[in-house]
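Hi F.,

I've been meaning to write this up properly since the lab meeting, where we talked about keeping a consistent format for the predictions we share between groups. The idea is simple: the sequence comes first, exactly as it goes in, then the structure tokens exactly as they come out, then a line or two of notes. No screenshots and no reformatting. I'm using this chain as the first example so we have something concrete to point to.
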Amino acid sequence: MKNFKTLLLIAVFTLGLGGVANAQKMGHIDFEKLVAEMPQTTKLKLDIEKLGKTYQDEVEGMAKKLDAKMKKYTAEQPSQTKEINEIRAQEVQQENARYEQLRQTAYQDMQKKQAEGLQPIIETAQKAIDEVAASKSILYVFDASMGKGLLVKKGEDLYAAVKAKLGF
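Output, unedited:
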């Protein structure tokens, strides 16, 4: 009976230490904040803004031409024949469709470029997190940026270490 109590005490003690050891092998990081503060993200943002300005100028230029043509055609409508007014209406509809197509294409292109630009940044951040976690023998890293999903922050915050690993 005495041996059984000793074994039970050893088992409880061992399991208790195992729980403490596992608690130290967890970490967390605000992944969104990390990616947002990376220099590559800042450059990508500037590139996307520059591209957006170019598209905006193009779209606004086309809109001004379309608006001017519509005003001209509206003013001349009473003095034109029915056939010419119908041709002009079709022309305006076609130009309006091209305008909408340009807007849609610009938006999609910007979305695509942003996604393509973010992919290597995310991969770099993930690799740095993996390396820092491995160097600290951390088994689980939770993303603290996932809303309010991280209820208890007892693990190690890896943000500063990953930031240093990335060199910014």
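Notes:
Helices lie at 2-23, 31-37, 39-76, 82-135, 159-166.
The longest strand covers residues 26-29.

If this format works for you, I'll send the rest the same way.

G.
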